[in-house]
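Notebook entry, structure prediction.
Reason for the run: the old model in the group folder had no record of what sequence produced it. Starting over properly, with the input documented here first.
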Amino acid sequence: MFLLFTVIIISSIIIFSLPHPSPSLDTSNWQVYENPKFGFSIKYPPGWTQSVDSEKNPYFWDNQGLANAVYLSIDITDKSGPNSNRYATFLKEIKAGDNYFAFYSSTKPPEKYQPIFNQMISTFKYRQTDITLVSKMPLPSGIESAQIQSPEKIDDLFFVTFLKSNLNLPVDSVVRRSGVLWTSSTSSAWKIFFEIKDNSENKNNPYDFWKEGNDYYVLLVDANGAGSGEGGAKLVKINYANKTWKLTNCFYYVPEKFSFYLKALPKGISLSQAISRYQDPQVPLHMEEDTDCSLFDLIFP
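New structure, fully documented this time:
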């Protein structure tokens, strides 16, 4: 009887010569997940579900009612090598564009899942996106690449937030500037959309930026205090055509409470409506009275 694999021992290192891969599985009826932000797609079997807490970390779950859920996940980073903090099994890494796509499975999944994982990874496809192209555009003078977050496409334009470092957002830059940049696929550089003007003590950063109808919204948080991420938050509505802005809510921001509130909202409520109604009952803020709500300005070019 032939062994399915051979083992060679060199010094203290064990090298496995793996068996030939099993025949390809039929993926014609598999579902397709597409990630336009990072320019890739991957197939996953029928009966599996897909969840995305972050576009940098999609998960694909088997729904077989197992006590220990089985999944395949993808970590998207700008550095090579498995994440030592992940409680999971590292499967493979693929370099595509400027990013590394690291594939993980749940810890010690049943052996029958290995060919499924292999087949899923084999369906991975990458294409260079407009976001990849605009990410390489030069920044305005005085803004450093360490401040830049991931670009987002809104309508036909691209936007990116830039942050100033504080205790909760340890940006590797001493530049005390924050705001939003914009560009288009036909432009040659990023431009200032607006910049946040603080007093000497505040460090407001744009935590979220989006558009509803003809208006833009930004959620600013001054989390310059304790390392818990808490701080004064402001929801700002922007009319860019008139270069004006309006404060629509001010509240005390506790990350865990705020996240729970958003997840519990019924369907049909816009993000701006949801945030405009929010207050932390333990630390209510008043737009007309609290300095946390007023010590900033938005400067348009």
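Summary: Residues 1-21 have pLDDT under 50 and may be disordered.
The old model has been moved to the deprecated folder.
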